[in-house]
Structures are given as structure tokens and as C-alpha cells.
Amino acid sequence: MPPLHRTALLAGLLLALSFLPARAQDASQCAPEYTQAETAYFDADFDRAIRLLRTCLEEADLNPDAQVRFYRLLSFAYIAQDERAQARAAIEQLLTVDPNYAPDPETDRPDYVALVREVKAARTPADDDDGRRWLRWVLGGAGAVAAGVLTIVLVGGGEDGGSTGNLPAPPTPPN
């Protein structure tokens, strides 16, 4: 394969891969902030805990497990400040990330457990993103396939724009 074709094929492959959904980074980038927020929460400095958690949730690309932890603690802080609407919004975000989330009645605040149950009961199936997750994968896969086909079409055949290689000449017609 000529170098130009290899380069075009590689460019097409990279383009196709760019259509695939990106994986979120791990939570280590916000681990210090989470620890500080947790300490602030236990020290009853709820404003600081909320500020730290919201900053990471808004600015960092956290994986789903980390998002659940952050939204859980955020809702704890809002509940502690008696900001039920804000706590409810944090729980709704948590359930958007993990629709199957269930609080632990043994370790979680009772008012938090009750609020999670209340929010889950009020949600409709359309609120859960699982119904559309397959669509993102299908569209991403279709985009990758389209990019691959486009690359093959653009690269074409041989060096002369479509030559089929070294085929023998056709026989001469009889007189």
C-alpha cells in the first residue's frame, strides 16, 4: 500500500474513532476537593462543602461512580442547611447518572433516604437516560462507519484514481 494511502487510511481511522463516546476520567483529579468537602461537611461548614463539590461537578469530567458520591454528599449538605429543593435537585442529578441507585438506610441520613425514595417515586421512565443511551451508541457507531466508508471512497483505488492494478489488456476484437 502506498504511503499516501496508509496516511489517508490512518486519518480516516482517527476520524472514525473521534465519533465514539469518550470515557470520563477517574475521580482522582477531584479527590482532594472531595476530601476537603467531606471534612467541611463534618465540621458543619456546609457552604464550603457545597462550593467544593459544585466546582468539581461543573468543571471536572468525573466518572459516574464519582458523580454519584459527589451528588450524594452535596445533597447531604443541602439537607443540613434545610435547603430541600436544592437537595432534591442534587438527588435528581444523582439518579440521572445512576437510575438504579439506592441509598443505604444503615449508613445514610434518614431524611436523605426518604428524599431519595420520594424523588424516585416521582420520576417517570422518560426521566431516566437509559432509554436514550442506546441511541448515542447507535449514532456514534453509524458516524464511525460513515467516516470509514468516506475514507475508503476518498482514498479510492490505485494511484491513477481508480485503476484496478496490473490487469492484462483486453483481447483485440476479430476483424
CATH architecture of the largest domain: Alpha Horseshoe
The dominant shape is elongated
Tell me the CATH superfamily of the largest domain: Tetratricopeptide repeat domain
CATH class of the largest domain: Mainly Alpha
SS-derived structural category: mainly alpha
Using the coordinates shown, work out and report the CATH topology of the largest domain.
Answer: Serine Threonine Protein Phosphatase 5, Tetratricopeptide repeat
Tally of helical segments: 7
Helix and strand pattern = HHHHHHH
Mean pLDDT over the full residue set: 79
Unreliable stretches (pLDDT < 50, length at least 5) are 13-17, 19-26
Gyration radius from CA atoms, angstroms? 27 Å
Q: How many domains in all?
A: 2
Question: Largest sheet, described in full?
Answer: none
The strand count comes to 0
Roughly how many Å apart are the termini? 41 Å
Q: What is the helix content?
A: 55-70%
Provide the β-strand percentage band: under 5%
Give a verbal description of the structure.
By secondary structure, the chain is mostly helical. The chain has two domains: 3-21 and 131-155; 27-126, Tetratricopeptide repeat domain (Serine Threonine Protein Phosphatase 5, Tetratricopeptide repeat, Alpha Horseshoe), CATH 1.25.40.10. It is built from seven helices and no strands. It has helices spanning 3-18, 31-42, 46-59, 64-80, 84-97, 110-122, 130-155. Helix 2 (31-42) packs antiparallel against helix 3 and helix 3 (46-59) packs antiparallel against helix 4. The longest helix has 26 residues, at 130-155. Mean pLDDT is 79; it is low at 13-17 and 19-26.
